[in-house]
Structure formats: C-alpha cells, structure tokens
Amino acid sequence: MTGSTGSTGSTGSTDSADATGTTSSPGTAPTEPAVRPVTPLTEPRDGVPDVLVTEAELAAYAAALAAGTGPVAVDAERASGFRYGQRAYLVQVRREGAGTALIDPVELPDLSSLTRATAGVEWVLHAASQDLACLAEVGFVPDLLFDTELAGRLLGRDRVGLAAMVEAELGLSLAKEHSAADWSTRPLPESWLRYAALDVEVLVELRDALEADLVRQGKLEWARQEFEAVRLAPPPPPRVEPWRRTSGLTSVRDVRRLAVVRELWQQRDDVARDRDISPGRVLPDRAIVAAATALPRSADALGALPEFSGKGTRRRLGIWWSAVARALALPENELPSRRGPAADVPSHRAWRDRYPEAAERLRAVRARMREIAEEVGTPQENLLTPDLQRRLAWEAGEVTPRDAITTGVVATWLTTHGARPWQAEVCAAGLAAALRDPASVADPDGEQRAADPA
C-alpha cells in the first residue's frame, strides 16, 4: 500500500431529494417495493415486429431511433452452451417514438448506424456486462448507461433477475422460458421473438422506478459511477492455463494425468472453435477427467471408457487418442506443474496455516465489510469485490507501523486498485480501523476467528 492518489471519473453530482422533497443521506438502508397485484405481460403493446434483415430496414429504423425520445432499451440474445463464442444472434432495441426493433446481427453485422442514432442518449440494459461485448462486436456501443440489475444490487434487492424485478417494481409478470434457448436457430420461432420483444418492453419503466429509489436511498451517484465503470471496462485478459478450470480437476493428482487433461482440453477447444460448437457439447469435462484418471495406453482402451461411448465421441476417437498419446509422450520437463502459475498474492486458503497474521487481517476486513454492507443495505461484494478485500488484507502487512494505515492511505489504495470513489468514501475509514487493530473487530456472531475460505 502506497500513498499515491488515484480516482475514476463519475457522471454527475449526487441527487439527495426525491420528487416529494424527501432527502436521504448516502447509504440509507433499503426498503423492498410494496407488494402489488401482478398482471401478466404476454404481448408487446405494438405487437411482435418482423426481424430486420436488410440494410434498408436498418437505415429506416436508425432514422426513427434518432428521432425518438427518452432512453433506449437494449438487449441481446446469444447461444451460450450451443455455440463456441458469445456473439449476438438477436439484438432488441426500443425507444419511445421509434418502437421496438428485432435485428438479426448475422445478416446485419454492422450496427454502427444505431450507435450514431443514439449518440449522447442513455442506454438501459439489464446485466449490461453480459451484453456489451457482443454488442460492441457489431459496432453498437453506448455513450451513457443505466444497468437495472446493478441498480437492484446497490438497492439491496434480494432478487435481481429481470423477471423478478419487473414483477416487484412494476407489478408485471414476464416469462423467461426462452432465456437459455439456442438463438442461432433460424428461422426464430414466433414465441421466441415475442419473448425477445417483451424483454425491452418495460426496461425504461423499470429504470425510472429504480432511479427513484436510488434517489431515496442516496445512492444515485454510486450507481452512476458503477454504470460508467461497466461501460468503460476493458475486455478481461485471456486466462492463464484455462484448462485448469476443467470441472473435476481436483481429483487429478499427478502431473502426467494433468498433462492428459491439458492436451484433451486444448484439442477439444480447437475442434469446438472450428465447428462453432460449445466445447462441452464436443467433449464433456467428465470425459476429459475420466481419461486422465484411467491413463489409457491405446485408442481401444480410451474407447472402452463409458464416457467415450457416445456416437459423436467415438467418431472422433482418433483425435482424442492423439491428444492422450501426446501427453503420455511428453518429457518430464514439459509436464504441467501441480499448482499452476504462481499468483502475486498467495491463495487465501493457505493463509491460516502459512500466514496467520494475514489471515487475521482478512477476517477483520470481511467482518468490517459485512458491518458496512448491513448498515448501507448493499451486498458486500458490490461494496468491494472479494479479490480487492483479499489484496488489501495482504498488502496491509507491508505497512509499518500499523498507525500508518490511515483512512487516506486506504482510500488511495482502493481507488488506485480499481475501486470507485464512492466505494472508497464508504469503506475506507472502517477498513483502516480494522487493519490497524484486527483483534478489535468481532465477527457477526461476536467471535474473533481465523479467516475461512471464500
């Protein structure tokens, strides 16, 4: 932890009064919306529009969109679990005065005209971080953002799925039966298109209800900073050794068997990319782990495993055996390590035994964050990510004497490491006190104890 100053931009000043003049200090505890009768939302008010597939249709809608008023509701449908990547297979847009458009980005891969049509206009999305990347791939990017899911989290809502929030905030029931469908299907069924149109039907109304509560709780500025951070977030860096995320890998102990997992995972990824199929549909993780566990010495032995008995798996048995054979032939110095690449901060699961002082700091940080979360009515992970909490607890050990861990030092460390200014303002003082004297911080049950795994 050092004393350099860092901050991120915000998008406006804090609003502290609602329409009735009621004021709230930042972090007022939440109140759930009043229970109201629920009305099924079964049909878009303008009917289900035809899917736009031509440049002329797109240009006409872009002109209507530019002439519309108010925020723009946006959504995208992908084919997760069916296709290799996360590209969009349908884009939904709605704005007052322009109506709803369903756009096929396979036929229309350049939607930059819609970006120009919405320049300076706020977009409303639900769980925006899931859709912004695939929208950017087709040239559709926002200047301003309101994320209804993230707003719900900041407000302390227990359920933040779109259907649950629409019901709680607006008294409307929204069906979600096609959320996990294969949206690369062509032609798209009418019932799917209806579902897609309804996803943006009341997003702006939901946004307005949530904004009013953000004002009441004194959290509108928090939300603005969070929305801007999501909008400007860079793509995540490629994972180091992504094969280590194979389900069931913890049962694979020795390095030769880990090499089998690595080679099969990479071979599967190559096949999946070439065929544009989700890797799990090409070869399940359980088959990879079964091959590594059995360590077969021939293609026949590999094919005898129950996990390799399916038609598709057997059809590519030669490919899978070649991957296993490569792993068996690797010299010792090319085998993967048991633990994987070293991290700059050791795994917190080892702190209790190897770094007890760091474990105690982490326990105190988590306990203090739970206190703050309860006080302001926002989940702990939205106040400060678990990774940032661990890093803070670890690096605080480098500061001596402990009295040097001041509110200003912690606030600077937080913003330098990616926290938003509001997060530093809310958390820094409590965290600084906890790090100066971890033993003074009791867990919610009143006990001080070593940190347990997250």
From TrEMBL:
Record GO biological process: nucleobase-containing compound metabolic process
SMART domains, per database record: 35EXOc, HRDC
InterPro entries: 3'-5'_exonuclease_dom (IPR002562), Exo_C (IPR041605), HRDC-like_sf (IPR010997), HRDC_dom (IPR002121), HRDC_dom_sf (IPR044876), RNase_D-like (IPR051086), RNaseH-like_sf (IPR012337), RNaseH_sf (IPR036397)
Region (Disordered), start-end ranges: 1-47
Pfam families on file: DNA_pol_A_exo1, DNA_pol_A_exoN, HRDC
Composition-biased stretches (Low complexity): 1-31
HRDC domain sequence ranges: 254-334
Gene Ontology molecular functions: 3'-5' exonuclease activity; nucleic acid binding; nucleotide binding
Name of the featured protein: Ribonuclease D
Organism (species): Miniimonas arenae
